Amino acid sequence: MKAVVLVAGKGTRMAKYYEGPKQLLPVGDKPVIEHSLDLLPPEVDGLVFVVGGPHEQTIRDYFKSGEHDGRPIEFVRQEEQLGLAHAFRCARELVTGRWLGMVGDDIFGPKGMQELVRHDLAALADRVEHPEKFGVLVADDEGYLVRSVEKPQEFISNLVWTGAMVMDESFLDLEVPPSARGEYETPDVWMKMIQENGAKIKVVETDFWLPINDKEQLEEAERVLSQ
Question: Looking at residue 218, which CATH number applies to its domain?
Fold first, then answer.
């Protein structure tokens, strides 16, 4: 199983504090991205980095050895940043069967990721105070996804997608229209998988998730990891 890791982006919200890619921000004794890479499940035997944006070369240079912890790294370029679903689809030619997808600028705990790969299809979730900032999930009594909405204006649930998931090739093959903000949204792909393919996507609640989108969240990550 390969892990498709999204490391493209401009890092706009962190630009006034840090000039490089957000994924390489130091947290504790190593960059953000290495905290999660070091704890990937053993089922993951290769890495696909989706790169792009102004910091692409910095990412490529940092991982110029072509491997991390014995896992070979392949690079694919996202020419235009059109949402997370679009970014994952850039890896289509490098992925077969099931794959683990994750954003490269958040820190994930090992238990949630290990549980994630035990399911054929799954999305890693957490409960937050401000779900309107994320992709919101609704699961049925058996824990399978029945509804997902990207950044809803009205309250639906406090359960949100963390940016990690296990999918198969159908996620990469299905076409969805762009959202009102001009991006291809992962929740839209999931709903099409469920409606057209009868997919059963398990919602796995994580043991640990530190999103790092701004200076305050970076400081919180430093505090939590130091403890």
Answer: 3.90.550.10
